Amino acid sequence: MILILSAVAHENAHLAAQLNQPQRSCYGPMELRSGQLGEHHITLATTGIGKANAAGISAMLLLHLRPALVVVCGCGGAYPSSGLSLGDLALASEELYADEGAITPNGFMCMSEMGLPLLERDGTRYFNSFPTDQHLTDLAAASLNVFAAKTECSLSVGRFITVSTCSGTDTRASTVETATGGICENMEGAAVAQMCRMFDTGFIEMRAISNMVETRNLSRWDLPGAMQRAQEALLYWLQRCAPATLRS
Question: Across the strands, what pairs with 159?
Answer without folding.
Answer: 94
